[in-house]
Amino acid sequence: MQLRMTNQREMILRELKKSKGHLTADELYERVKKYMPRISLATVYRNLEILSDVKMIRKLEISGRQKRFDSELEDHDHIYCVECQRIDNLDIGQKHVELPVGDTHGYTITGRRLEVTGLCPKCQEKIKKTSTKKSRGVAKMGCGSKKCTLNDKQKEVLEAMNKCDGPSASKDIAAAVGKEAKQISCQITALKKKGYIDSPVRCKYEITSEGKTALKA
């Protein structure tokens, strides 16, 4: 198929190559409109699809994510960050995959796509810093601090939860301490803020390891 290269297509292709990345149509639109203020997002979408159809660019369709486009035409795979949605090229060193005849159901294989997900270095560092801050916060808690202090009502609720086998609803916890659910709701909220209880199931609560430690203090 002979494709007529309009000014719009040339500009879109140029910006995609210049980025050396894997841009979405929206990201390309923001770049292209600096030079072509009257261009529309729909025009960018349409031309990206056309360029992809004639194999001048590659279209990346990551499961459940926005389409991205790549100017690198040589066969290669990609790795995708589940946190920030960044995409990088991935060289696995194997360009051709031999599949057993029985597994292809009679198909003639014309291509393949390997989808690899993970956490990019920036997101790993971000998560590491967050975890460090949390661990420091726990380490600084002493039995004399406000966060470690349990009043009688909170301790009563925590002790009841410690005896529960798995997550329990507030009405079950209230029954265990002989009160109504609304009477212990503020204790549950306070204990949750302190990290002594968690809510792994909607509207149900269970004691955490920090809560068990607080009971022994």
Q: Write the CATH fold name of the largest domain.
A: Arc Repressor Mutant, subunit A
Largest sheet data: 3 strands, antiparallel
Question: Please, how many domains?
Answer: 2
Mean pLDDT: 80
Beta strand count: 9
Strand order of the largest sheet: 1-3-2
Question: What's the number of helices?
Answer: 8
Level-1 CATH class name of the largest domain: Mainly Alpha
The rounded Rg comes to 28 Å
Task: Show unreliable segments.
Answer: 142-147
Structural class: alpha+beta
Q: Considering DSSP H and I runs of 4 or more, what fraction of the residues is helical?
A: 40-55%
Description:
It is a single chain. With 217 residues, the protein is an alpha+beta fold. It folds into 2 domains: 7-92 and 112-120, Arc Repressor Mutant, subunit A (Orthogonal Bundle); 152-216, Winged helix-like DNA-binding domain superfamily/Winged helix DNA-binding domain (Arc Repressor Mutant, subunit A, Orthogonal Bundle). Helix content is 43%, strand content 15%. It has helices at residues 7-19, 25-32, 41-53, 121-140, 152-162, 170-176, 181-194, 209-216, and strands at 22-23, 58-60, 68-70, 77-81, 87-90, 115-118, 168-169, 197-201, 204-207. Strands 1-3-2 form a 3-stranded antiparallel beta sheet. Strand 8 and strand 9 form a beta hairpin. Helix 5 crosses helix 7. It is elongated, with a radius of gyration of 28 Å.
